[in-house]
From TrEMBL:
It holds the Pfam family DUF445. This is DUF445 domain-containing protein. Keywords: Membrane, Transmembrane, Transmembrane helix. InterPro entries: DUF445.
Length: 466
């Protein structure tokens, strides 16, 4: 195994996930830069481990390093041979070659120093302003967060970008497709079922019961009932109820004639003869049946008029009479305080929840069909109506701007805290694996450009000297 392989094996051992989980904070960073920072474990592991793709990129970096170093050695050899040839009197060309190769070595060494200084101290010497990435990692993270916040999370940038996207028209065109409306309907149904399942019936029942009771207690109901009753009587809406009651009363009297006469006879004094009691009972029954029959068949019966006057007066008392209103309020409190009423209020939520869950689960239920139709209609309007599109775009822009303005620091801190949680050594190796190959071209270009510049300078100097 070569030295490079040994180095890679040792480095991989140091990136053991158990170890990197404990090394979440950069050991080279200044304490003030990493204080009170929490970094997601997944983000730290992703940066502190080397994947197979990273290994392949690192091998590419090594090959480019060998190429750049080989080119440096080549120009160094050319320089030695050119100087030897120049000293041996081989001709003027040797001076040109020596100057070009000498400048190429200078350019190669200078660029090697610059590239190496990004990741480590050249030759292990603690030269100032070298090993920039491992020593300035946290500052780079802060600068990157500020750059993103200022240039990508500003109000104007967000508004312009969202306005250029045209979310309203795109969303409308997407939602107008039946399969998409079906999908959204299914997702909304699943969310509704999930929400109703998570909610505890006892909690919701308590809230609903308290809300109804509190609202009923806070608002006087007598005037409202009075106004409603007054309007019902004025419109004659109560007459159907009266018709129903007297019809049912007549039928009941017909069906229970014997029971009624027996009840009358049973209430008579004991000293009266039984045939007298029977005659009295029959007479009372006939008069009562006649009264109810006349009231049923005569819309202008005096009893109906008396009932109308009573209801009218009662409606007026409900609105203006203090005693009547107070009695209604006391009755309201007694009714609401009864356990049966509270149980009814509580059971109403159970019934409503069961109905909603059943409708949400049934694909052909009226609820889901109406939601689907509404989504299709909304999508068509959003796709075709510029006013609706502008309104939707405005909502989205306002929401996005609010999120950006309110949580900009939290968003950018995700960058700075994540970078702060990376291990300096591992981060350096990972970054070098990703961009190191391109950086080696700087060394190659420095060698070539340095050689050409040296050749040009030497040629100009000779020309001016001649």
């Amino acid at each position: 195994m070569c030295a490079g392989d040994h180095e890679r094996v040792e480095w991989m051992e140091r990136t053991n996930p158990e170890e990197t989980g404990e090394r979440g904070v950069n050991e080279h960073a200044h304490p003030a830069a990493t204080e009170n920072r929490t970094v997601p474990a997944a983000a730290a592991r992703a940066m502190n481990t080397f994947s197979a793709a990273d290994e392949e990129k690192q091998r590419g970096v090594r090959r480019m390093k060998l190429t750049a170093t080989g080119l440096l050695l080549f120009v160094a050899l050319v320089y030695v041979l050119a100087k030897w040839a120049d000293d041996s009197g081989a001709g003027a060309w040797a001076g040109y070659v020596a100057a070009a190769s000498e400048a190429g070595m200078v350019g190669a060494l200078a660029d090697w120093f610059a590239v190496t200084a990004l990741f480590r101290h050249p030759l292990g010497l603690p030269i100032p302003h070298t090993a920039i990435i491992p020593t300035k990692k946290d500052q780079l993270g802060v600068s990157l967060g500020e750059f993103v916040g200022e240039n990508f999370l500003s109000r104007d940038v967000v508004r312009q970008r969202l306005r250029a996207v045209g979310i309203g028209s795109r969303l409308g065109a997407w939602l107008a497709e039946p399969q998409h409306a079906d999908r959204v309907t299914a997702e909304l149904s699943a969310a509704l079922r999930g929400a109703l399942t998570v909610l505890r019936d006892s909690d919701v029942q308590a809230v609903v019961g308290e809300a109804i009771t509190r609202r009923a207690d806070a608002q006087e109901i007598a005037p409202g009932i009075g106004k409603m009753l007054e309007k019902v009587v004025a419109d004659g809406g109560h007459k159907r109820v009266v018709d129903l009651i007297v019809t049912r009363a007549h039928d009941w009297l017909v069906w229970h004639d014997t029971e009624i006469m027996d009840a009358v006879q049973g209430g008579a004094p004991g000293w009266t003869p039984r045939f007298v009691d029977k005659k009295v009972g029959e007479r009372i029954y006939r008069e009562l049946l006649r009264f109810v029959t006349e009231m049923r068949d005569m819309p202008t019966h005096p009893a109906r008029g008396a009932l109308d006057r009573f209801l009218t007066d009662f409606a007026s008392d409900l609105q203006s009479d203090t005693d009547t209103r107070a009695r209604v309020e006391r009755l309201k409190g007694e009714v609401l305080g009864r356990g049966e009423v509270q149980d009814l209020i509580a059971s109403a939520w159970t019934a409503v929840r069961s109905m909603i869950v059943s409708a949400a689960e049934d694909e052909r239920s009226e609820l889901r069909l109406r939601v689907r139709a509404s989504l299709l209609s909304l999508g068509a309007r959003m796709a075709e109506d510029p006013k609706v599109q502008a309104k939707v775009d405005g909502w989205v822009e306002s929401a996005a701007v609010y999120v950006v303005s309110t949580y900009r620091k939290e968003i950018t801190s995700l960058i700075t805290d994540t970078v702060a949680g990376w291990d300096a050594e591992h981060t350096t190796k990972k970054i070098e694996a990703h961009i190191g190959r391109d950086l080696q071209f700087i060394r190659i270009n420095g060698t070539v450009v340095g050689s050409l510049a040296g050749l040009l300078i030497y040629a100009v100097t000779r020309a001016l000297g001649a």
